[in-house]
Write a structure and sequence with these properties.
The structure holds 2 protein chains of 2 kinds. By secondary structure, chain A is mainly β. Chain A contains no helices and 10 strands. Classes of the chains: A mainly beta, B alpha/beta.
Chain lengths: ~150, ~375
Amino acid sequence: MSASPTASALPKPAVPFIKIPENGEPYLEGQRCSACKEVFFETRRACPKCTKIGTLKAERLSNTGKLYNFTVVHRNFPGVKVPFISAIVDLDGGGSLKGNLVDIEPDIAKLKFDMPVKVVFRDAGRIDKAGNKYLAYFFIPADGGNP
Amino acid sequence: MTDVYVVGTDMIKFGRFPERTVDDLGAEAALLALGDCGLTIADMQAVFCGNLFQASAGVGQRILKQIGQTGVPVVNTANACATGATAFREGWTAIKAGLYDMVLCVGVEQIGKGLLGGGGGGKDDGIPTEGLLGSGTMPSVFAHVGLEHSRKYGTTFEQFAKVSVKNHHHSTLNPKAMYRVETPLDEVMGAEMISYPNTKLMCSVNVDGSAAAVLCSEKKAKELGLMGRAVRVRASALASDPWSKHNLAAMDFNAVTRLAAKSAYEMAGLGPDDIDLIELHDCFATAEIVHYENLGLCKDGEAGRLIDSGETALGGRVPVNVSGGLLSKGHPLGATGIANIYEITTHLRGEAGERQVQDARIGLTHVVGAGSACAVHVLEKV
Protein backbone atom coordinates (compact mmCIF):
# COMPACT_ATOMS: atom_id res chain seq x y z
CA MET A 1 0.00 0.00 0.00
CA SER A 2 1.52 3.38 -0.92
CA ALA A 3 1.16 6.43 1.25
CA SER A 4 -1.87 8.52 0.31
CA PRO A 5 -1.70 12.33 0.19
CA THR A 6 -3.45 12.42 3.60
CA ALA A 7 -0.82 10.26 5.32
CA SER A 8 1.18 12.07 7.99
CA ALA A 9 4.94 12.27 7.49
CA LEU A 10 5.52 11.64 11.19
CA PRO A 11 4.68 8.28 12.77
CA LYS A 12 1.53 8.04 14.89
CA PRO A 13 1.43 6.25 18.25
CA ALA A 14 0.29 2.60 17.99
CA VAL A 15 -1.64 3.13 21.24
CA PRO A 16 -2.69 6.45 22.78
CA PHE A 17 -0.38 6.19 25.79
CA ILE A 18 2.74 6.33 23.62
CA LYS A 19 3.68 10.02 23.62
CA ILE A 20 5.85 11.41 20.83
CA PRO A 21 7.18 14.88 21.73
CA GLU A 22 8.23 17.14 18.86
CA ASN A 23 11.65 17.47 20.43
CA GLY A 24 12.83 14.56 22.52
CA GLU A 25 12.44 10.87 22.98
CA PRO A 26 9.10 9.03 22.88
CA TYR A 27 7.82 7.75 26.21
CA LEU A 28 4.94 5.89 27.86
CA GLU A 29 2.42 8.02 29.69
CA GLY A 30 0.49 6.65 32.65
CA GLN A 31 -2.21 8.07 34.87
CA ARG A 32 -1.35 7.94 38.56
CA CYS A 33 -4.05 8.15 41.20
CA SER A 34 -3.04 10.72 43.82
CA ALA A 35 -5.16 8.88 46.42
CA CYS A 36 -4.09 5.23 46.08
CA LYS A 37 -0.90 5.84 44.00
CA GLU A 38 -1.75 3.13 41.47
CA VAL A 39 -0.81 3.66 37.80
CA PHE A 40 -3.10 3.08 34.80
CA PHE A 41 -2.92 3.61 31.06
CA GLU A 42 -5.26 5.92 29.16
CA THR A 43 -7.78 8.13 30.83
CA ARG A 44 -10.53 6.88 33.07
CA ARG A 45 -13.52 8.62 34.61
CA ALA A 46 -12.45 7.54 38.09
CA CYS A 47 -9.76 5.42 39.67
CA PRO A 48 -10.58 1.76 38.93
CA LYS A 49 -8.80 0.69 42.09
CA CYS A 50 -10.08 3.10 44.75
CA THR A 51 -13.04 4.69 42.84
CA LYS A 52 -11.98 8.28 43.69
CA ILE A 53 -12.94 10.85 41.09
CA GLY A 54 -10.59 13.53 39.81
CA THR A 55 -7.44 11.98 41.24
CA LEU A 56 -5.71 10.75 38.08
CA LYS A 57 -2.74 12.76 36.86
CA ALA A 58 -0.68 12.10 33.74
CA GLU A 59 2.88 10.96 34.43
CA ARG A 60 5.87 9.95 32.33
CA LEU A 61 6.58 6.28 33.10
CA SER A 62 9.92 4.57 33.41
CA ASN A 63 11.55 2.93 30.41
CA THR A 64 12.97 0.13 32.53
CA GLY A 65 11.25 -2.78 34.19
CA LYS A 66 11.21 -6.50 34.93
CA LEU A 67 9.79 -9.43 32.99
CA TYR A 68 6.81 -10.57 35.06
CA ASN A 69 5.41 -13.13 32.63
CA PHE A 70 5.90 -14.40 29.08
CA THR A 71 4.95 -16.94 26.48
CA VAL A 72 6.37 -17.88 23.11
CA VAL A 73 3.59 -17.67 20.53
CA HIS A 74 3.91 -20.24 17.75
CA ARG A 75 0.50 -19.98 16.12
CA ASN A 76 -1.31 -16.76 15.31
CA PHE A 77 -3.46 -15.19 12.63
CA PRO A 78 -2.31 -15.18 9.00
CA GLY A 79 0.11 -12.31 8.43
CA VAL A 80 1.44 -12.23 11.98
CA LYS A 81 5.04 -13.40 12.04
CA VAL A 82 5.68 -16.25 14.47
CA PRO A 83 7.30 -17.26 16.71
CA PHE A 84 7.38 -14.18 18.93
CA ILE A 85 7.50 -13.50 22.64
CA SER A 86 4.41 -12.03 24.29
CA ALA A 87 5.70 -10.46 27.50
CA ILE A 88 4.14 -8.82 30.53
CA VAL A 89 6.46 -6.29 32.13
CA ASP A 90 6.23 -4.48 35.44
CA LEU A 91 7.71 -1.04 34.87
CA ASP A 92 9.98 0.31 37.58
CA GLY A 93 7.96 2.83 39.58
CA GLY A 94 4.55 1.50 38.50
CA GLY A 95 2.55 0.33 35.52
CA SER A 96 2.29 -3.16 34.05
CA LEU A 97 1.84 -3.79 30.34
CA LYS A 98 1.95 -6.41 27.65
CA GLY A 99 4.17 -6.18 24.60
CA ASN A 100 6.62 -8.04 22.39
CA LEU A 101 10.02 -8.89 23.85
CA VAL A 102 12.54 -8.64 21.01
CA ASP A 103 16.29 -8.81 20.38
CA ILE A 104 16.33 -12.20 22.09
CA GLU A 105 15.66 -15.60 20.57
CA PRO A 106 12.02 -16.66 20.97
CA ASP A 107 13.09 -19.72 22.92
CA ILE A 108 11.32 -20.44 26.19
CA ALA A 109 14.57 -21.73 27.72
CA LYS A 110 16.21 -18.30 27.24
CA LEU A 111 13.55 -16.43 29.23
CA LYS A 112 13.74 -15.84 32.96
CA PHE A 113 11.12 -14.41 35.26
CA ASP A 114 12.13 -10.98 36.57
CA MET A 115 14.90 -10.47 34.01
CA PRO A 116 15.52 -6.74 33.60
CA VAL A 117 14.22 -5.19 30.40
CA LYS A 118 14.22 -1.80 28.70
CA VAL A 119 11.38 -0.16 26.79
CA VAL A 120 12.33 1.00 23.28
CA PHE A 121 10.29 2.66 20.56
CA ARG A 122 10.50 1.46 16.96
CA ASP A 123 8.54 1.51 13.76
CA ALA A 124 5.58 -0.86 14.09
CA GLY A 125 6.12 -2.29 10.63
CA ARG A 126 2.41 -1.86 9.93
CA ILE A 127 0.54 1.01 8.27
CA ASP A 128 -3.12 1.96 8.34
CA LYS A 129 -5.43 2.31 5.35
CA ALA A 130 -4.35 5.90 4.79
CA GLY A 131 -0.69 4.82 4.70
CA ASN A 132 0.27 6.30 8.06
CA LYS A 133 3.27 4.81 9.84
CA TYR A 134 3.10 3.93 13.51
CA LEU A 135 5.51 3.92 16.41
CA ALA A 136 5.21 0.99 18.84
CA TYR A 137 6.89 0.13 22.12
CA PHE A 138 8.96 -3.02 22.46
CA PHE A 139 10.82 -4.63 25.33
CA ILE A 140 14.45 -5.62 24.93
CA PRO A 141 16.78 -7.32 27.42
CA ALA A 142 18.39 -4.64 29.63
CA ASP A 143 21.83 -5.88 28.57
CA GLY A 144 20.99 -4.94 24.99
CA GLY A 145 20.21 -8.46 23.78
CA ASN A 146 21.07 -9.50 20.24
CA PRO A 147 19.57 -6.89 17.89
CA MET B 1 -37.81 -17.07 49.19
CA THR B 2 -38.52 -20.33 47.43
CA ASP B 3 -35.85 -22.84 46.60
CA VAL B 4 -35.31 -23.23 42.87
CA TYR B 5 -35.05 -26.62 41.18
CA VAL B 6 -33.74 -27.91 37.88
CA VAL B 7 -36.57 -30.20 36.81
CA GLY B 8 -35.60 -30.78 33.19
CA THR B 9 -32.30 -30.47 31.36
CA ASP B 10 -30.48 -31.77 28.32
CA MET B 11 -27.90 -30.87 25.70
CA ILE B 12 -27.26 -31.87 22.12
CA LYS B 13 -24.12 -33.79 21.23
CA PHE B 14 -21.63 -31.01 20.53
CA GLY B 15 -20.18 -30.87 17.03
CA ARG B 16 -19.89 -28.76 13.88
CA PHE B 17 -23.16 -27.96 12.21
CA PRO B 18 -22.45 -25.20 9.66
CA GLU B 19 -25.58 -26.14 7.70
CA ARG B 20 -27.86 -25.46 10.68
CA THR B 21 -28.96 -22.18 12.31
CA VAL B 22 -28.45 -20.92 15.85
CA ASP B 23 -32.20 -20.90 16.51
CA ASP B 24 -32.54 -24.47 15.24
CA LEU B 25 -29.71 -25.66 17.49
CA GLY B 26 -31.20 -23.83 20.49
CA ALA B 27 -34.69 -25.12 19.74
CA GLU B 28 -33.45 -28.71 19.73
CA ALA B 29 -31.97 -28.40 23.25
CA ALA B 30 -35.05 -26.50 24.48
CA LEU B 31 -37.38 -29.29 23.35
CA LEU B 32 -35.08 -31.95 24.82
CA ALA B 33 -35.07 -30.21 28.22
CA LEU B 34 -38.83 -29.69 28.18
CA GLY B 35 -39.29 -33.32 27.17
CA ASP B 36 -37.00 -34.41 30.01
CA CYS B 37 -39.65 -33.21 32.51
CA GLY B 38 -42.74 -33.78 30.37
CA LEU B 39 -43.56 -30.09 29.98
CA THR B 40 -44.06 -27.89 26.91
CA ILE B 41 -43.16 -24.35 25.97
CA ALA B 42 -46.77 -23.41 26.81
CA ASP B 43 -45.95 -24.14 30.48
CA MET B 44 -43.01 -21.69 30.54
CA GLN B 45 -43.62 -18.20 31.95
CA ALA B 46 -40.36 -16.70 30.67
CA VAL B 47 -37.35 -17.62 28.56
CA PHE B 48 -33.71 -16.72 29.23
CA CYS B 49 -31.37 -17.29 26.32
CA GLY B 50 -27.59 -17.14 26.32
CA ASN B 51 -25.75 -16.54 23.05
CA LEU B 52 -22.63 -14.51 22.38
CA PHE B 53 -21.89 -14.30 18.66
CA GLN B 54 -25.41 -13.18 17.68
CA ALA B 55 -26.04 -11.17 20.82
CA SER B 56 -27.87 -8.44 18.93
CA ALA B 57 -30.05 -10.79 16.89
CA GLY B 58 -32.81 -11.89 19.28
CA VAL B 59 -31.83 -15.55 19.48
CA GLY B 60 -34.32 -16.32 22.28
CA GLN B 61 -37.22 -14.95 20.25
CA ARG B 62 -36.03 -16.87 17.18
CA ILE B 63 -36.02 -20.09 19.22
CA LEU B 64 -39.66 -19.42 20.15
CA LYS B 65 -40.47 -19.03 16.47
CA GLN B 66 -39.20 -22.63 16.15
CA ILE B 67 -41.02 -24.12 19.14
CA GLY B 68 -43.97 -21.86 19.94
CA GLN B 69 -44.52 -18.11 20.08
CA THR B 70 -46.31 -17.94 23.42
CA GLY B 71 -45.63 -14.24 23.96
CA VAL B 72 -43.77 -14.69 27.25
CA PRO B 73 -40.93 -12.36 28.24
CA VAL B 74 -37.61 -13.27 26.60
CA VAL B 75 -34.27 -12.07 27.94
CA ASN B 76 -31.15 -12.54 25.83
CA THR B 77 -27.86 -12.55 27.69
CA ALA B 78 -24.28 -12.03 26.51
CA ASN B 79 -21.53 -12.29 29.13
CA ALA B 80 -18.42 -13.73 27.46
CA CYS B 81 -17.88 -17.38 28.36
CA ALA B 82 -20.27 -16.98 31.29
CA THR B 83 -23.11 -16.25 28.85
CA GLY B 84 -25.04 -19.51 29.35
CA ALA B 85 -24.54 -19.52 33.10
CA THR B 86 -25.73 -15.91 33.21
CA ALA B 87 -28.95 -16.86 31.39
CA PHE B 88 -29.42 -19.70 33.87
CA ARG B 89 -28.80 -17.34 36.77
CA GLU B 90 -31.28 -14.78 35.43
CA GLY B 91 -33.91 -17.53 35.35
CA TRP B 92 -33.01 -18.54 38.89
CA THR B 93 -33.19 -14.90 40.03
CA ALA B 94 -36.65 -14.44 38.53
CA ILE B 95 -38.05 -17.49 40.32
CA LYS B 96 -36.31 -16.50 43.56
CA ALA B 97 -37.93 -13.09 43.24
CA GLY B 98 -41.33 -14.76 43.02
CA LEU B 99 -42.10 -13.44 39.54
CA TYR B 100 -42.50 -16.86 37.93
CA ASP B 101 -42.83 -20.53 38.90
CA MET B 102 -41.41 -22.06 35.72
CA VAL B 103 -38.88 -20.74 33.23
CA LEU B 104 -36.77 -22.08 30.39
CA CYS B 105 -33.07 -21.31 30.14
CA VAL B 106 -31.27 -22.04 26.87
CA GLY B 107 -27.65 -21.59 25.85
CA VAL B 108 -26.55 -21.92 22.24
CA GLU B 109 -23.55 -21.09 20.07
CA GLN B 110 -22.38 -21.63 16.53
CA ILE B 111 -18.68 -20.81 16.18
CA GLY B 112 -16.62 -22.55 13.53
CA LYS B 113 -12.91 -23.34 13.85
CA GLY B 114 -10.05 -21.04 14.68
CA LEU B 115 -8.38 -18.72 17.15
CA LEU B 116 -10.52 -16.55 19.40
CA GLY B 117 -9.37 -13.25 20.84
CA GLY B 118 -6.65 -10.91 19.64
CA GLY B 119 -9.17 -9.20 17.36
CA GLY B 120 -9.41 -5.61 16.24
CA GLY B 121 -7.77 -3.97 13.31
CA GLY B 122 -9.12 -3.06 9.94
CA LYS B 123 -10.07 0.37 11.24
CA ASP B 124 -9.47 3.38 9.01
CA ASP B 125 -7.41 4.92 11.76
CA GLY B 126 -5.02 2.76 13.72
CA ILE B 127 -3.41 -0.63 13.24
CA PRO B 128 -4.05 -4.09 14.66
CA THR B 129 -1.82 -4.70 17.66
CA GLU B 130 -1.95 -8.51 17.80
CA GLY B 131 1.60 -9.82 17.54
CA LEU B 132 2.92 -6.26 17.83
CA LEU B 133 2.13 -5.48 21.46
CA GLY B 134 2.14 -9.06 22.69
CA SER B 135 -0.65 -11.51 22.06
CA GLY B 136 -4.30 -11.36 23.01
CA THR B 137 -5.38 -14.64 21.46
CA MET B 138 -6.99 -16.93 23.99
CA PRO B 139 -4.23 -19.59 23.83
CA SER B 140 -1.69 -16.84 24.62
CA VAL B 141 -3.81 -15.25 27.34
CA PHE B 142 -4.11 -18.64 29.06
CA ALA B 143 -0.44 -19.40 28.44
CA HIS B 144 0.26 -16.31 30.56
CA VAL B 145 -2.23 -17.58 33.16
CA GLY B 146 -0.36 -20.88 33.35
CA LEU B 147 3.13 -19.41 33.43
CA GLU B 148 2.09 -17.02 36.20
CA HIS B 149 1.35 -20.18 38.20
CA SER B 150 4.74 -21.62 37.17
CA ARG B 151 6.37 -18.39 38.26
CA LYS B 152 4.84 -18.62 41.72
CA TYR B 153 4.94 -22.36 42.33
CA GLY B 154 7.14 -24.04 39.72
CA THR B 155 4.24 -25.78 37.96
CA THR B 156 5.57 -27.74 34.97
CA PHE B 157 4.57 -28.16 31.31
CA GLU B 158 3.97 -31.83 32.11
CA GLN B 159 1.58 -31.02 34.95
CA PHE B 160 -0.47 -28.73 32.71
CA ALA B 161 -0.48 -31.41 30.00
CA LYS B 162 -1.84 -34.02 32.44
CA VAL B 163 -5.09 -32.04 32.57
CA SER B 164 -5.64 -32.80 28.89
CA VAL B 165 -4.79 -36.46 29.31
CA LYS B 166 -7.41 -36.70 32.09
CA ASN B 167 -10.19 -34.76 30.38
CA HIS B 168 -9.73 -36.43 27.02
CA HIS B 169 -9.93 -39.77 28.84
CA HIS B 170 -13.16 -38.70 30.57
CA SER B 171 -14.71 -37.75 27.23
CA THR B 172 -14.38 -41.33 25.98
CA LEU B 173 -17.16 -42.12 28.47
CA ASN B 174 -19.45 -39.28 27.33
CA PRO B 175 -21.55 -39.92 24.21
CA LYS B 176 -22.33 -36.18 23.93
CA ALA B 177 -18.68 -35.07 23.74
CA MET B 178 -17.29 -33.69 20.48
CA TYR B 179 -14.10 -35.79 20.71
CA ARG B 180 -13.88 -39.18 22.40
CA VAL B 181 -10.24 -40.06 21.94
CA GLU B 182 -7.54 -40.97 24.46
CA THR B 183 -4.51 -38.68 24.30
CA PRO B 184 -1.46 -40.06 26.14
CA LEU B 185 0.90 -37.59 27.82
CA ASP B 186 3.59 -37.77 25.13
CA GLU B 187 0.97 -37.06 22.48
CA VAL B 188 -0.37 -34.02 24.36
CA MET B 189 3.11 -32.62 25.00
CA GLY B 190 4.27 -33.42 21.47
CA ALA B 191 1.29 -31.84 19.71
CA GLU B 192 1.75 -28.59 17.80
CA MET B 193 2.79 -25.83 20.19
CA ILE B 194 0.30 -22.95 20.00
CA SER B 195 1.44 -20.66 22.85
CA TYR B 196 3.81 -22.21 25.37
CA PRO B 197 2.85 -24.26 27.36
CA ASN B 198 -0.47 -24.78 25.58
CA THR B 199 -0.19 -27.28 22.74
CA LYS B 200 -3.07 -27.85 20.36
CA LEU B 201 -4.36 -30.71 22.55
CA MET B 202 -4.37 -28.35 25.54
CA CYS B 203 -6.77 -25.90 23.85
CA SER B 204 -10.54 -26.34 24.10
CA VAL B 205 -12.47 -27.26 21.00
CA ASN B 206 -14.53 -24.57 19.27
CA VAL B 207 -17.78 -26.32 18.50
CA ASP B 208 -21.43 -25.64 17.85
CA GLY B 209 -23.79 -26.74 20.56
CA SER B 210 -26.76 -26.06 22.76
CA ALA B 211 -28.07 -26.98 26.19
CA ALA B 212 -31.19 -26.09 28.14
CA ALA B 213 -32.67 -26.31 31.61
CA VAL B 214 -36.19 -25.93 32.97
CA LEU B 215 -36.24 -24.20 36.36
CA CYS B 216 -39.13 -24.48 38.77
CA SER B 217 -40.20 -23.14 42.16
CA GLU B 218 -40.57 -25.69 44.97
CA LYS B 219 -44.34 -25.26 45.12
CA LYS B 220 -44.76 -25.84 41.42
CA ALA B 221 -42.35 -28.78 41.28
CA LYS B 222 -44.30 -30.51 44.06
CA GLU B 223 -47.64 -29.67 42.46
CA LEU B 224 -46.51 -31.20 39.16
CA GLY B 225 -44.95 -34.24 40.80
CA LEU B 226 -41.49 -33.35 39.46
CA MET B 227 -39.48 -33.62 42.69
CA GLY B 228 -38.34 -37.19 41.99
CA ARG B 229 -35.63 -36.17 39.49
CA ALA B 230 -35.36 -32.54 40.60
CA VAL B 231 -32.04 -31.03 41.61
CA ARG B 232 -31.92 -28.07 44.00
CA VAL B 233 -29.93 -24.96 43.06
CA ARG B 234 -28.15 -24.49 46.34
CA ALA B 235 -26.22 -21.39 45.24
CA SER B 236 -25.88 -19.07 42.27
CA ALA B 237 -23.08 -16.51 42.17
CA LEU B 238 -21.81 -14.08 39.57
CA ALA B 239 -18.81 -11.77 39.81
CA SER B 240 -16.89 -9.28 37.68
CA ASP B 241 -13.14 -8.82 37.88
CA PRO B 242 -12.06 -6.71 40.84
CA TRP B 243 -9.07 -4.43 40.49
CA SER B 244 -5.75 -6.26 40.42
CA LYS B 245 -2.36 -4.94 39.36
CA HIS B 246 -1.77 -7.19 36.36
CA ASN B 247 -5.29 -6.60 35.07
CA LEU B 248 -3.72 -3.73 33.11
CA ALA B 249 -1.75 -6.20 31.03
CA ALA B 250 -3.60 -9.49 31.42
CA MET B 251 -7.24 -10.40 31.82
CA ASP B 252 -8.09 -11.62 35.28
CA PHE B 253 -9.56 -15.09 35.73
CA ASN B 254 -8.34 -15.75 39.26
CA ALA B 255 -9.61 -12.96 41.50
CA VAL B 256 -12.98 -13.03 39.73
CA THR B 257 -13.31 -16.80 40.27
CA ARG B 258 -12.35 -16.49 43.92
CA LEU B 259 -15.02 -13.82 44.43
CA ALA B 260 -17.74 -15.91 42.80
CA ALA B 261 -16.66 -19.11 44.61
CA LYS B 262 -16.64 -17.40 47.99
CA SER B 263 -20.09 -16.01 47.38
CA ALA B 264 -21.42 -19.40 46.20
CA TYR B 265 -19.97 -21.33 49.14
CA GLU B 266 -21.44 -18.77 51.55
CA MET B 267 -24.88 -18.93 49.93
CA ALA B 268 -24.82 -22.74 49.95
CA GLY B 269 -23.49 -22.89 53.50
CA LEU B 270 -20.93 -25.36 52.20
CA GLY B 271 -17.20 -25.53 51.59
CA PRO B 272 -14.97 -27.11 48.95
CA ASP B 273 -14.73 -30.33 51.00
CA ASP B 274 -18.48 -30.87 50.60
CA ILE B 275 -18.35 -30.97 46.79
CA ASP B 276 -18.53 -34.40 45.14
CA LEU B 277 -17.82 -33.36 41.55
CA ILE B 278 -17.03 -30.24 39.55
CA GLU B 279 -17.39 -29.00 36.01
CA LEU B 280 -14.95 -26.10 35.77
CA HIS B 281 -13.78 -23.84 32.98
CA ASP B 282 -10.93 -25.79 31.35
CA CYS B 283 -10.86 -23.62 28.22
CA PHE B 284 -7.12 -24.40 28.27
CA ALA B 285 -5.24 -27.02 30.27
CA THR B 286 -3.46 -24.25 32.17
CA ALA B 287 -6.80 -22.86 33.33
CA GLU B 288 -7.90 -26.02 35.11
CA ILE B 289 -4.76 -25.96 37.24
CA VAL B 290 -5.31 -22.40 38.53
CA HIS B 291 -9.00 -23.02 39.17
CA TYR B 292 -8.22 -25.94 41.50
CA GLU B 293 -6.86 -23.31 43.85
CA ASN B 294 -9.37 -20.60 42.97
CA LEU B 295 -12.23 -22.95 43.87
CA GLY B 296 -10.49 -24.13 47.04
CA LEU B 297 -9.94 -27.77 46.02
CA CYS B 298 -6.41 -27.46 47.38
CA LYS B 299 -4.25 -24.83 49.02
CA ASP B 300 -2.48 -22.21 46.92
CA GLY B 301 0.58 -23.76 45.33
CA GLU B 302 -0.71 -27.34 45.50
CA ALA B 303 -2.57 -27.59 42.19
CA GLY B 304 0.37 -29.26 40.44
CA ARG B 305 0.44 -31.91 43.14
CA LEU B 306 -3.34 -32.29 42.86
CA ILE B 307 -3.26 -33.18 39.15
CA ASP B 308 -0.29 -35.51 39.80
CA SER B 309 -2.23 -37.30 42.55
CA GLY B 310 -5.13 -38.30 40.32
CA GLU B 311 -7.62 -36.95 42.87
CA THR B 312 -9.44 -34.96 40.19
CA ALA B 313 -9.90 -37.91 37.84
CA LEU B 314 -13.03 -40.05 37.75
CA GLY B 315 -12.80 -42.32 40.80
CA GLY B 316 -10.68 -39.78 42.69
CA ARG B 317 -11.52 -37.60 45.70
CA VAL B 318 -13.18 -34.82 43.70
CA PRO B 319 -13.58 -35.65 40.02
CA VAL B 320 -13.24 -32.59 37.77
CA ASN B 321 -14.69 -32.38 34.27
CA VAL B 322 -15.86 -35.97 33.96
CA SER B 323 -17.83 -34.80 30.91
CA GLY B 324 -14.53 -34.35 29.09
CA GLY B 325 -14.62 -30.65 29.83
CA LEU B 326 -14.28 -27.83 27.36
CA LEU B 327 -11.06 -29.47 26.21
CA SER B 328 -12.77 -32.51 24.75
CA LYS B 329 -16.55 -32.23 25.10
CA GLY B 330 -16.18 -28.87 23.38
CA HIS B 331 -16.81 -25.21 24.18
CA PRO B 332 -19.78 -23.62 22.41
CA LEU B 333 -19.43 -20.37 24.40
CA GLY B 334 -23.07 -19.51 25.13
CA ALA B 335 -24.06 -23.14 25.70
CA THR B 336 -21.20 -24.14 27.98
CA GLY B 337 -22.62 -22.82 31.26
CA ILE B 338 -25.90 -24.71 30.84
CA ALA B 339 -24.17 -27.84 29.52
CA ASN B 340 -22.28 -27.86 32.84
CA ILE B 341 -25.62 -27.74 34.69
CA TYR B 342 -26.81 -30.68 32.57
CA GLU B 343 -23.68 -32.68 33.41
CA ILE B 344 -23.88 -32.13 37.18
CA THR B 345 -27.64 -32.73 37.25
CA THR B 346 -27.18 -36.00 35.37
CA HIS B 347 -24.71 -37.23 38.01
CA LEU B 348 -26.89 -36.11 40.93
CA ARG B 349 -29.75 -38.04 39.36
CA GLY B 350 -27.52 -41.10 39.05
CA GLU B 351 -28.09 -41.18 35.30
CA ALA B 352 -24.54 -40.60 34.01
CA GLY B 353 -23.89 -44.17 32.90
CA GLU B 354 -20.26 -45.20 32.47
CA ARG B 355 -18.90 -41.91 33.79
CA GLN B 356 -21.20 -41.76 36.85
CA VAL B 357 -19.53 -40.28 39.94
CA GLN B 358 -20.63 -42.67 42.67
CA ASP B 359 -22.86 -41.34 45.46
CA ALA B 360 -22.74 -37.79 44.11
CA ARG B 361 -24.87 -35.49 46.27
CA ILE B 362 -23.40 -32.02 45.70
CA GLY B 363 -21.89 -30.69 42.48
CA LEU B 364 -20.40 -27.37 41.43
CA THR B 365 -20.25 -25.65 38.06
CA HIS B 366 -17.85 -22.85 37.13
CA VAL B 367 -17.42 -20.75 34.03
CA VAL B 368 -15.27 -17.68 33.59
CA GLY B 369 -15.24 -15.41 30.58
CA ALA B 370 -12.74 -12.89 29.31
CA GLY B 371 -13.29 -9.39 30.42
CA SER B 372 -14.13 -10.84 33.05
CA ALA B 373 -17.28 -12.62 34.16
CA CYS B 374 -17.43 -15.63 36.47
CA ALA B 375 -20.44 -17.70 37.45
CA VAL B 376 -20.47 -20.48 40.03
CA HIS B 377 -23.47 -22.69 40.78
CA VAL B 378 -23.86 -25.33 43.46
CA LEU B 379 -26.41 -28.06 42.82
CA GLU B 380 -27.75 -30.60 45.32
CA LYS B 381 -29.48 -33.95 44.98
CA VAL B 382 -32.94 -33.73 46.55
